[in-house]
Amino acid sequence: MESMLNKLKSTVTKVTADVTSAVMGNPVTREFEVGRHIASGGPGLCWRIYNGTKKSTKQEVAVFVFDKKMIDKFLKFEKDQIIDSLKRGVQQLTRLRHPRLLTVQHPLEESR
């Protein structure tokens, strides 16, 4: 019983350390307070959308997070095409300015 508890404790400690390092190094969590998951979208529902607030201005935002693990079921060539398409879409949205369109507050960035 004690060995099982020690194993559980070491697993929890490792997961906590991994999450802390990933979150602290993530620019999204440095610049935005990320709230609850409110929607999913895109091909295969790979984009997860969270409500949030920009820390510097207290402006309400929607945080879009793309989970690359969701496309692991595709071939490498298909994965590359999907990722390139997503990057192009974000770049196009960054250049567009209109009061009825989303504005990009932080450019697309890859991280853990």
UniProtKB/TrEMBL annotation:
Signal peptide region: none
Residues forming coiled coils: none
PANTHER family, sorted: SCY1-LIKE PROTEIN 2, SCY1-RELATED S/T PROTEIN KINASE-LIKE
Protein name: SCY1-like protein 2
Naturally occurring in which organism (per UniProt): Goodea atripinnis
Biological classification of the source: Eukaryota, Metazoa, Chordata, Craniata, Vertebrata
